Amino acid sequence: IILTMRTCSQTFSWLSTFRFSSSMEILMMAVGSFCAIVHGAAQPAVLLVFGAMADTFIEYDIEMQELKDPLKICVNNTIVWINGTIHQNEKNATIRCGLLDIEQEMTKFAGYYAGIGCAVLVLGYIQICFWVMAAARQIQKMRKAYFRKVMRMDIGWFDCTSVGELNTRISDDVNKINEAIADQVAIFIQRLTTFVCGFLLGFVSGWKLTLVIIAVSPLLGVGAAVYGLVSRELKAYAKAGAVADEVLSSIRTVAAFGGEKKEAERYDKNLVFAQHWGIRKGIIMGLFTGYMWLIIFLCYALAFWYGSKLVLEEEEYSPGTLLQVFFGVLVGALNLGQASPCLEAFATGRGAAANIFETIDKKPAIDCMSEDGYKLDKVRGEIEFHNVTFHYPSRPDVKILDNLNMVIKAGETTAFVGASGAGKSTTMQLIQRFYDPTDGMITLDGHDIRSLNIQWLRSQIGIVEQEPVLFATTIAENIRYGRDEATMEDIIKAAKQANAYNFIMDLPQQFDTHVGEGGSQMSGGQKQRIAIARALVRNPKILLLDMATSALDNESEATVQEALHKARLDRTVISIAHRLSAIKAADVIIGFEHGRAVERGTHEELLQRKGVYFMLVTLQSKGDKALNREDTESKSDHICPLYRASLRQRSRSQLSNMVPDPPLSIARDHAESMYVESVAVEEDVKPVPFTRILKYNASEWPYMVLGSLAAAVNGAVSPLYALLFSQILGTFSILDEEERRTQINGVCLLFVFVGILSFFTQFLQGYTFAKSGELLTRRLRKIGFQAMLGQDIGWFDDQRNSPGALTTRLATDASQVQGATGSQIGMIVNSFTNIGVAIIIAFYFSWKLSLVILCFMPFLALSGAVQAKMLTGFASQDKKALEATGRISSEALSNIRTVAGIGKENMFINNFEKHLYMPYRAAIKKAHVYGLCFGFAQSIVFIANAVSYRYGGFLVDAEGLHYSFVFRVISAVVTSGTALGRASSYTPNYAKAKTSAARFFELVDRLPDISVYSEKGEKWDDFKGSIEFLNCKFTYPSRPDIQVLKGLSVAVKPGQTLAFVGSSGCGKSTSVQLLERFYDPETGSVKYETNVGAQGSQLSRGQKQRIAIARAIIRDPKILLLDEATSALDTESEKVNEP
């Protein structure tokens, strides 16, 4: 069954999930499997004892019944009539007597039970412990291998793969594989062995009856291949995760456009798919389980009817043999049924492994960690493109470069100009070998760059991008990323060259200042200068500047340009820029159009040609100066719209400089200590009452009531077993043949009835709880996501709330909270009904024996409680440790181009692997605890039986209790005890759910200072746009020691254009963020129109869509983002604005 299941389109063997096992792990799994096999054989072995014990009881009871007759006595171990004739039964056999000491016999049987119980304790511990430890070691390797491979993949692969999806795979999918290769395998092997041994016992003890049962059992195998749905559900969740990741990573932009509600709806739409598959899976599982129970009951109705015939009419079996066969096959089949949840875990694990291993096995088109390739002794830096044609892998139908030929001479500064989409940035990416050309080749000093060692090649190149990416560590570390062995002197020198030294020294912690998520604590200009320092510190032979000064103010730009001018000496520089100031000084300017280099020359030469470059200059000078207006206007009519598009595109991407979108963070060095402290605070959240979780499921109450009723009926089935089986046993000592036959037929009919009932109730339980559970998960995820989007921007500045951590929480917390409701409520109701009905039956038939057995109930409950307590701690530790790795992977993958460009893949891999050690240690600890609890829970049943049967023997002897009542009471209470065990095996889920729920509700209950969803505050129809800052003082919540605004007072009247100028970091962007109410000033106020209350508190943040000025103030005035506009200007409005 297992090996032929299919996922998606690909056949993938479950055994290959173990491909990371070393000889040590294989040994551990082998020992664990051996113990599981011996453990599995223990239950059928007990049946041998049980059968002999039953025969002893029946023999004793028949003797007692016979001797009740006053006319019969026991003489010489034979029953004789008082008149001296030997008494014979209906079969004309003499009846023995006086040979049985029932108490002594029971002592012997109790010894057997106790011995098996002790063995089970040891075996259970070893099988679970070894398998869990082996799995933890393999999962450790798997996480490492997966992350290594992902970091090795070429940029083209990332273009086609969503980062959110990759993060989901690293956390969720690997956990699913873990479940498929850990203790579930040991339990599966154990149950399978019990199944095989049970059937073997049946064949050896009585092959006729076993054959009758087996003739029906193929029906049990039908429907076992129903698990193909699982991988689709995984995919559906990954999609929603990708949406969440995208939105949380760009939270400032979402907030600026008031898109919270729209994004929440988009996320919710993606959750529908997952809900649909979850419900379908529940229906199929319910039908399958119900069908299994129905067949089992029908089998036993048939088996009991035929077996009693063999015992009583044909006398082939003793009653004990019948019980051995009967229970042997029953226990075997039940264990086969209980093995089906393991199959589900294997199928889920296989679905997850197919995705993970597909990536691990993929060969990157460009392997950035390959050792192959030449390393040139001396680099001059001449780059040549020979007939290069290129398409992006994610857009194979769009030709970006078309037979591009050009030479970039060594030691010269070459500027690329041209429209957006003409292929300028693409050429830079090809030089760094992020991609390989579709046709043609690129050479460095005459060598095809494909023949060079890739890490070496990238180490020769320094890159500064338009939107620089900084990593969540200190300024010094960020600069050191350029070159590992850089000393502090080198870093200071590079900072001075990049005009960054002065502003860094003004910060309280100077070079040790933490830059925040993605550099969010730095202004755009500061980020740019740190990035330039990072590029210069590696002293590169080739320097690539992709709009490197676009985010800087004029003052900084001039000094950085000067720094870059100095940096050009002895190196090849390629620059893409739109500002004339950045282009003019180039030695050579190359004009691009439609993927080709159409012109080449100096500034003066190209102005003479009146081509691409000339148009760009004309367009800019029109924006910059009001000179020769008429002349320029006559020419501007035919200016290529591509340039407008280009300017629009660049300005749009500058939006993110003004609105820093923190990518994902990495807990490292200084950040690490902050993170650990802060998490300790966060994890200590108030526990949530269970009723509150249920309130969120309230609208599904009809499903839950129906499911609970079905679960209650299912729970009563176990004690009914006990009743029917003891009834079977009782019939064998009935001396009247007619009465015996009637009772047997009655019990058989009851079996059929219970089977049919089970089918319907199991289906109902499966379907209703899947439906309510999936609806709850979807609702929780949506509410959680809405709550996240509703937080003020200051909340996102906190390290703990990085997009990576939040996405991981959405993925896992909601589904774990569902773990405490849904099917688990069914399990609890099932268990409690089971216990309730069992105890009623037990006390009704023998209160003394019931009390003795109930002494063992606390032990069963204790084993469950210990397990719950131990696992709660581990649940949260695992989560914390894995959240740290989630941050690292998120930060690396979100900024993969920067990571690749500076060749820092290995650093991220090492950091990721370092953080994996904690969850690994936790898993090893968990293995021992879980093993002990499992062994204890399994063995307590045997110990309870040993004591109970010994005491039962005493009651039968001393008080004349009927032996069938002994079996009835013991089997009722012990089956209910195992049900308690089942409820306790549920406790780890409940523990995780409580931790997750507490964190979830903490988020939902958090009232942000600035609420997006609040309807309070005025809304005006005739909003004119008069704005006033009154003595505003402000510090960022995450940097309380640095005051950014120190009493800002400024006003702008309706229709006016107000431009903020000043050096980087002086508060220009901050003012705009206050205007948009991302933050509120600490003192002073921002007023719109007239009286709108302190700090603009009467104005809802939804109103910010009306504040068109917010974008105009600090953006190039050629672009105006209109009131409620969600895009840049349309073609008509693009006409160059008058200054």
Automatic annotation (TrEMBL):
Residue ranges of every copy of the ABC transmembrane type-1 domain listed in the record: 30-348, 705-992
Protein function: Catalyzes the transport of the major hydrophobic bile salts, such as taurine and glycine-conjugated cholic acid across the canalicular membrane of hepatocytes in an ATP-dependent manner, therefore participates in hepatic bile acid homeostasis and consequently to lipid homeostasis through regulation of biliary lipid secretion in a bile salts dependent manner. Transports taurine-conjugated bile salts more rapidly than glycine-conjugated bile salts.
Organism: Falco tinnunculus (Common kestrel)
Transmembrane segments: 26-54, 110-134, 185-204, 210-230, 283-305, 701-724, 744-770, 825-845, 927-949, 961-980
GO molecular-function term, one example from the UniProt record: ATP binding
Subunit structure: Interacts with HAX1. Interacts with the adapter protein complex 2 (AP-2) throught AP2A2 or AP2A1; this interaction regulates cell membrane expression of ABCB11 through its internalization in a clathrin-dependent manner and its subsequent degradation.
Family, per entry: Belongs to the ABC transporter superfamily. ABCB family. Multidrug resistance exporter (TC 3.A.1.201) subfamily.
BP terms from Gene Ontology: oligopeptide export from mitochondrion
Gene3D superfamilies: ABC transporter type 1, transmembrane domain (1.20.1560.10), P-loop containing nucleotide triphosphate hydrolases (3.40.50.300)
ABC transporter domain sequence ranges: 383-619
GO terms for cellular component: mitochondrial inner membrane; plasma membrane
Source species taxonomy: Eukaryota, Metazoa, Chordata, Craniata, Vertebrata
Name of the protein this chain belongs to: Bile salt export pump
Subcellular location, record wording: Apical cell membrane; Endosome membrane; Recycling endosome membrane
Catalytic activity of the protein: glycoursodeoxycholate(in) + ATP + H2O = glycoursodeoxycholate(out) + ADP + phosphate + H(+); taurocholate(in) + ATP + H2O = taurocholate(out) + ADP + phosphate + H(+); glycochenodeoxycholate(in) + ATP + H2O = glycochenodeoxycholate(out) + ADP + phosphate + H(+); cholate(in) + ATP + H2O = cholate(out) + ADP + phosphate + H(+)
CDD domains documented for this protein: ABC_6TM_Pgp_ABCB1_D1_like (cd18577), ABC_6TM_Pgp_ABCB1_D2_like (cd18578), ABC_MTABC3_MDL1_MDL2 (cd03249)
Protein keywords: ATP-binding, Cell membrane, Endosome, Glycoprotein, Membrane, Nucleotide-binding, Phosphoprotein, Repeat, Translocase, Transmembrane, Transmembrane helix, Transport, Ubl conjugation
PANTHER family: ATP-BINDING CASSETTE SUBFAMILY B MEMBER 11, GENE 2 (PTHR43394:SF23), ATP-DEPENDENT PERMEASE MDL1, MITOCHONDRIAL (PTHR43394)
Entry membrane topology: Multi-pass membrane protein
